[in-house]
Amino acid sequence: MKKPRTMKLSLPDEELVGSGNLACQGCGATLAMRYVLKALGQRTVLCIPACCWSVIDGPFPHSCLDVPVYHCAFETAASTASGVKAGLEMVGDTETTVVAWAGDGGTFDIGIQALSGAAERNDDIIYVCYDNEAYMNTGIQRSSATPFGAWTTTTPVKHFKNRPKKDIDAIMAAHRIPYIATASIAYAEDVYKKAKKAKDIQGTRFLHIYAPCPTGWKSRPEDSIRLARMVVQNSIFPLYEIENGEKYTLSIKVKDKKPIHDYLKLQGRFRHLTEDQIKFMQEEVDKNWARLLRKVESSD
Amino acid sequence: MKKVIMGNHALSYGAMLARSQVIAAYPITPQTQVVELLSEMCADKTLDAKFIKVESEHSAMAACIGASVAGARTFTATSSQGLALMHEMLHWASGGRLPVVMGDINRSMGPGWSIWTDQNDSLSQRDTGWMQYYCASNQEVLDTVIQAFKVSERLAIPSMVILDAFALSHTYEVVDIPDQAKVDEYLPPFRPQVRLTPDDPHAFGGLTSPEHYFELRYKLQKDMEKAPGLIEETGREFETMFGRYLGLVDDYLCDDADIILVTSGTAGYTARVAVDDMRKSGIKAGNLRIKVFRPFPFEHVRRIVKNAKKVAVVDRNISYGHHGMFFQEVKSALYGHDDSLPVFGFIAGLGGRDITPSTFREIADIALSKDRPEEEIIWIGVKR
Known about the structure:
The structure holds two protein chains of two kinds. Chain A is an alpha/beta fold. Chain A is globular, with a radius of gyration of 19 Å. The mean pLDDT of chain A is about 95. Chain A has a single domain (about 30-300), classed as 3-Layer(aba) Sandwich (Rossmann fold). Chain A has helices spanning about 30-40, 50-55, 75-90, 105-110, 110-120, 170-175, 190-200, 215, 225-235, 260-265, 275-300; strands at about 45-50, 70, 95-105, 125-130, 180-185, 205-210, 240-245, 245-250. In chain A, about 35% of the residues lie in helices and about 15% in strands. In chain A, helix 1 (about 30-40) packs across helix 7 (about 190-200) and helix 3 crosses helix 5. Chain B is about 40% helix and about 20% strand. Chain B starts with a strand and ends in a 5-residue tail after the last strand. Chain B folds into two domains: about 1-240, Thiamin diphosphate (ThDP)-binding fold, Pyr/PP domains (Rossmann fold); about 250-380, Rossmann fold, CATH 3.40.50.920. The longest helix of chain B is centred in the middle third of the chain and has 33 residues, at about 210-240. In chain B, helix 1 packs parallel to helix 2, helix 10 (about 265-280) packs across helix 13 and helix 11 crosses helix 12 (about 325-335). Chain B has 13 helices and 16 strands. The chains are: A alpha/beta, B alpha/beta. At the A-B interface, strand 1, strand 2, helix 3 and helix 5 of A face strand 3, helix 3, helix 5 and strand 9 of B.
């Protein structure tokens, strides 16, 4: 009998995220965790502040993760992780990868001081921000990661968010840490590859992962991967790496940059926008993209 | 070995002799010398520890919590505004049952900016589930740090070792620095039952429903109730090995005293000068210095004041709209036991205003001249 062919896997088949978790349908944050843990493996410790993942993991005494988790205070993902790393080393464990795993609110807003402190010290931790662009766990309130134009429960349609998303990656680059990467859950192998690369680097590493939230974006759960791909192809959220705060490298070279229109139309949070407003947003996206390309070119 | 050192350095030596493994701290006057000396000790390997130079006190306590849950012995020190900034994390340390030990230099809360001593910083943290030791000498500071680690690690409850700004923090005294080998014998390495490790993965501190949360808090209180006995037991053990007893309270000439001045911190030793003077002029005075405020030593207070005719509690703090906080506790200790004993509450020395022997003489005169307190609280030395 002919030996059956085997499927060639682009990711390891080990699963450290259990299926019995409390995520919403179409949750990007859950896929982000799944791909990152495939790269980091079981010798990993997670520090999770208040965020969707403090619920997704499951209530006491349950946990859907096969790695140890320390649920920490909202603004302390980075500082707790710094402490865990020092503590593990002092008890003789120098191998374990220590990860701060936070949402955008815990990173861009309330946790930015502790994150900046850890990055300035270049503490040996991986900081992962899964970015769903608002405080989703508390019911869709705006954060400084919420994009221009979006509805949230604290930016109602009549007063939608009128400031751009904070450029956290540029802020992190200014700390001259060894490794920064943006990633999107539509590009699973890219997430995996970047987490793997981060694992082998010493010092503070920052992964910024785009993670759609159907509940908060008023999008269909089955569109999460589509949105996470479109956001890269229209260059709202380009995928790139920054090494030592200065060397910018594009991960996905977008040849045929798409307009943002179709991306916006799949999400209820942008439904109120007029064509003029969308045009303005498109111009901002184009400017940001050009700025990024200049940084990439000047790195060569 | 005897050395002449400042109170802040007594904290550093205590942390060093306890073999602290992770220190995370942020500078604040008047605590700075604590962390300066510790960073030198870490740099020259006198102390094998990692010092995380954090960007705030909030991160200091968060890092201590992370290190402690990873299984390392952990120390920090702060003061006043810094302690207030840590408030959220103090709950996290005690609720997470992590035996962090922290030095706090009692400094008044702003505004206006003050660097001088009073106790409103630490007493504002009384309900955070930390043990609190109020020290009166540099020797006691050093010894208490070592004892605090032992008690904290046994009970899985954090401890605050507290000393007055300047009156102790910057005051030099002769201190016996115990032998490291003997300290090692007294304080074995920290070996927590569970810790954060991939070898035995658990989730710590996750979402806890009403089904479980209540019992976690019950257990914290039940273990806190074990602390008075354990502090005395470890205090006697310390006395056997080092010749100095470390107890819950420290009473002076209280047995036959008509009036007992109740104090905390360095004011206790000042009170004793006043007590001696009063004794010379025929007034039977005594001093009860309360060292441990949390857990509160109810039984000891009741036993020591039981033969007195008057009790005068001197608070270097105030709970606005209520009383001085030691006064509250002393009254609550007596409630249902001896309701007839007049207890007077005095507020003195806020913002570092000096408390001198004559302050205590004035306090004693007021208490002795009245049958019962006529005011809820009596302010001493305030300019009206």
